[in-house]
Design brief:
The protein has 684 residues and is mainly alpha-helical. It contains 28 helices and seven strands. The structure holds zinc ion (ZN).
């Protein structure tokens, strides 16, 4: 294809230089990405070939500003692959995984470029750099070393081949999970199959049927459909079917089987770690984290695991008592837990989702998230219906700062659809930077909420509300970024720090002042009654044993499998997973958040491999951080919010995370607020 005919390679004459979505076709991506990689290589060769001695500006700052075209194209490409994919786009994804990984290796193994960066790194103390410049130099240098810049040429060649193969495998892994999700539907025939389902679950199941060109009701593997089904369906046989389909994604013989893929990924990662002199991939991954080493992670996980098991058994006792009363004698299986827990919740707290959801219409909750951001950080969001978006369901907003200047663009993509992967996530089309001119960020949040029927509002569960705020917290981390360099921008922080801004933002969903203002009944407009808010808070603590055990079990399997040295990856990863859980004593009837064959955090990319623990690590920080507002006596205390914005939401990776946290809090984080929040401090 001729470059002039490719809209990706022409200047984007759109507002805020948003991608020209409506002009883009799958066949535009491969040639544009190849052209952008070529341009990036020329930029790097030019930096390396300078006659002038290496300096911060001519080498480190220029490196940070290089590859902008590629970064923008990758932004569009990865976001569309995740949120609005198609067989054609998936084909491009498979085709480009290796060349893009090869390009990344070529960048970080560029000998001439690394020689300059390495020379500067050795002299860094005497260069007269600002603290942020010094941080940039150190992080860029670390990126090069961790990507193999110091390996001898033959080892570099093997390393690059490893990375290319890993890119292919992780791409295939994610596509296989999506294939199993899209292929599955549980058709509910007649009233008998719908037994126990409240109106909102029926409406979502009907809507899902319509979207698939069917009549009646279907349950898909979208989490916002599946979890309510497991919670409410009186049909134990159907719950079991749905649960088995959900947990066996990626574990069926055939084209979408992830078992051999997981094994090969683990083998390659062990080899990758060995190339750096690390005993295991966990060691390699943790070397670039706040935790620093496996022992620190294990101590946290062990501590929480030991406290969560008795909490879970207390909850089990309540479930069994109610089952006994109802004359039910079977054991609790994983597809039963939520169902009976919901019955206990309704009985003990007189609470059910059908009563709660009318107070949480999606539109009002989005407004609530914006309002909290305004009260804390002084930014205002306003919709711009005319901005280009990639799907009719996506809403675009301008974010203005206190002076009224547009400081960021926010895209909100809230609904589940077959072309979108499951889960919820934040991503970017463009990062904030001042290097090479002021650039404002373009940030996107994806959720997978079940859409209300046509003409009906979309109602959220309280968990959905937390997810909405969680992702918006990540969004603010990208949008409020105020740093000099792209490498240090927004969520480009150490991965056990990255969940702090998101999980912290969840705290405002339980603030009575926020709920009274925004959680209003969808029909009457009445604010949610205080008594219901209190019951909601009490009921949330009730489920913490179940949630904490399942989460921690997944974090333990992740650490165990990534702690295996080279040559010790088992042939049967599913059996290994079961063995770890047996040794750890996962109680029966609970199940996991994620099985290896569909654990996208670990295997659809490498960002969270040996890193599922980061949510808990960051929770220590977020619970301790929110206590600063509690101590000030106001969830919007202006002084605390100002420090929070400066040191956490705006700082990116411009300051070492431990130091920036201490600057916000005046001390290091304490463990107790997290344990207290999860109800794990109470005596058995
Ligand atoms: Zn998150």
């Amino acid at each position: 294809m001729n470059a002039t005919a490719n809209p990706l390679l022409q200047p984007w004459a759109t507002p805020y230089a948003l991608p020209p979505f409506s002009a883009l076709r799958p066949e535009h991506f491969a040639p544009a990405l190849r052209e952008a990689m070529q341009q990036h290589r020329v930029e790097l060769d030019t930096i390396a070939a300078q006659a002038e001695a290496p300096g911060f500006e001519n080498t480190v700052a220029r490196f940070d500003a290089s590859g902008r075209l590629l970064a923008r194209l990758e932004g569009v490409f990865h976001n569309l692959c995740a949120s609005e994919t198609s067989p054609e786009l998936q084909q491009v994804q498979r085709e480009m995984a290796e060349p893009m990984a090869a390009h990344s290796s070529a960048v970080y193994m560029h000998a001439g470029l690394f020689a300059r960066i390495d020379a500067l790194h050795r002299q860094r103390a005497g260069l007269g750099l600002t603290p942020e410049q010094l941080r940039l130099l150190e992080q860029v240098h670390r990126d090069f070393v961790r990507a193999g810049a110091r390996l001898v040429p033959a080892a570099q060649q093997r390393y690059a081949a490893l990375m290319e193969r890993l890119a292919t495998l992780t791409t295939q892994f994610g596509q296989n999970v999506l294939a199993d999700e899209s292929a599955y539907r549980l058709a509910l025939e007649g009233e008998a199959d719908l037994a126990g389902l409240p109106e909102f679950v029926r409406a979502a199941a009907h809507q899902a049927a319509i979207e698939r060109g069917l009549d009646g009701h279907v349950i898909t593997l979208s989490r916002s459909q599946l979890v309510p089904f497991l919670t409410f369906s009186e049909r134990r046989d159907l719950r079991e079917q749905a649960w088995r389909a959900w947990t066996s994604r990626g574990e069926h013989a055939g084209a979408s089987d992830n078992r051999a893929i997981v094994r090969e990924i683990l083998q390659l990662r062990a080899e990758q770690a060995a190339a750096h002199g690390n005993a295991s991939f966990a060691d390699y991954a943790l070397d670039n984290s706040m935790a620093r080493e496996q022992g620190a992670v294990q101590r946290l996980l062990d501590n929480v695991w030991q406290r969560a098991l008795p909490a879970l058994e207390r909850e089990r006792g309540q479930l069994l008592a109610l089952m006994h009363e109802a004359g039910v004698t079977h054991d609790i299986e994983p597809w039963d837990w939520r169902f009976w827990a919901e019955k206990v919740r309704q009985r003990t707290y007189a609470l059910d989702d059908a009563e709660i959801k009318p107070y949480f219409p999606l539109d009002r909750m989005v407004a609530a998230a914006f309002d909290c951001a305004e009260r804390l950080f002084g930014v205002r969001f306003s919709e711009r219906a005319d901005l280009p978006v990639y799907h009719a369901d996506v809403k675009a907003y301008e974010m203005r700062d206190r002076d009224g200047n547009v400081a960021g663009i926010f895209l909100h993509d809230n609904y589940a659809r077959p072309s979108k992967r499951s889960g919820a996530w934040m991503s970017s089309f463009r990062l904030q930077t001042r290097n090479g001119g002021d650039v404002i960020p373009i940030i996107v949040n994806n959720n997978n909420f079940a859409k209300g029927a046509p003409g009906e509002p979309t109602l959220l569960s309280f968990d959905d509300v937390r997810t909405l705020f969680h992702e918006f917290g990540h969004g603010l981390h990208g949008l409020l970024s105020n740093v000099g360099y792209e490498r240090l921008s927004g969520t480009n922080v150490l991965r056990d720090f990255v969940e702090l801004p998101s999980q912290l933002f969840e705290h405002w969903t339980t603030e009575p002042a926020v709920l009274r203002r925004h959680a209003r009944h969808v029909r009457t407009g009445e604010p949610i009654p205080d008594a219901l808010v209190e019951r909601l808070a009490a009921a949330r603590r009730f489920g913490q044993g179940f949630e904490t055990v399942r989460y921690t079990a997944s974090a333990l399997t992740d650490m165990a499998v990534h702690a295996l040295p080279q040559g010790q990856v088992p042939d049967d990863v599913v059996a290994f997973e079961a063995q770890v859980l047996r040794e750890r004593g996962l109680p029966p009837g609970v199940g996991l958040n994620h099985r290896f064959t569909n654990f996208q955090h670990l295997f659809a990319g490498s960002g969270y491999a040996a890193g599922y623990y980061v949510y808990l690590w960051a929770e220590v920080l977020d619970a301790d951080a929110f206590d600063a507002f509690v101590e000030a006596g106001d969830p919007f205390d202006a002084a605390v919010a100002t420090r929070l914005k400066q040191h956490i939401y705006a700082a990116g990776d411009s300051v070492e995370p431990g130091a920036t946290y201490a600057a916000f809090r005046g001390r290091t984080a304490r463990l107790e607020p997290m344990l207290k929040k999860r109800g794990l401090l109470e005596p058995a």
